[in-house]
Write a structure and sequence with these properties.
Mean pLDDT: 79
Number of domains: 2
CATH topology of the largest domain: Cytidine Deaminase, domain 2
CATH superfamily of the largest domain: Cytidine Deaminase, domain 2
CATH class of the largest domain: Alpha Beta
Order of helices and strands: HHHHHEEHEHEE
Low-confidence stretches: 1-5, 38-43, 45-49
Number of helices: 7
Shape: globular
CATH architecture of the largest domain: 3-Layer(aba) Sandwich
Length: 193
């Protein structure tokens, strides 16, 4: 998922890992995938200053997982990615996870950024991105920074509008997740789609 802290998003996996555990150790451990580094066999103490690096690495590892297999077979990885992305945000933002026809992640994009309590969402821009990426389906997500994850009436209406608009260009809306600091709401799980 390409939703990252700007200071670290420009670094390679090896450079990030080098900041976390040291350059020499990073070169020794990294073999083109971050997955082996999160299996528990390489526990290192992470200082508070390195938390942003660790967060970026975890997010990239989850992206690797979502790009390799159907997001429908890894719903917890989707939720984890979104929780990491929205952690500490003091404003609402709206993202779309664009998926191929096998439901693998193509890219995740933050499309709209708002205020503490609302975000303007434009269906035309979402449709344009879906067509540009040749997406077969999409998962939406936005955060509620200061309240629970239950969707507002506006959230529900917008989701219905987006579902209808994207159906016209054969892009299925698989879910809309609302992420709050301590909970997550899934439109698909609650049969709101």
């Amino acid at each position: 998922m390409k939703l990252t802290t700007p200071a670290y998003s420009m670094l390679s996996d090896t450079q990030l890992l080098g900041k976390l555990i040291g350059v020499r150790e990073a070169r020794r451990l990294y073999r083109g995938s971050l997955a082996p580094l999160f299996d528990g066999s390489h526990d290192k103490e992470i200082t508070p200053g390195k938390c942003a690096v660790a967060r970026e690495l975890v997010q990239r590892w989850l992206n690797e997982e979502l790009s390799r297999e159907s997001v429908l077979s890894a719903p917890s990885a989707v939720r984890d990615c979104l929780r990491i992305h929205f952690a500490g945000r003091e404003y609402e933002s709206f993202i779309a996870l664009f998926l191929d026809t096998q439901h693998r992640l193509i890219v995740a994009e933050e499309l709209f950024r708002g205020t503490l309590s609302e975000t303007a969402v434009y269906p035309r821009e979402i449709a344009r991105s879906a067509l540009r990426l040749n997406a077969g389906s999409v998962i939406f997500a936005h955060n509620h920074p200061n309240h629970d994850s239950h969707p507002s009436l506006e959230d529900r209406a917008m989701t219905k509008l987006l579902t209808k608009a994207l159906a016209l260009i054969d892009v299925a809306v698989l879910d809309h997740l609302v992420i709050a600091p301590n909970s997550t709401f899934s439109f698909a799980e609650r049969k709101y789609l």
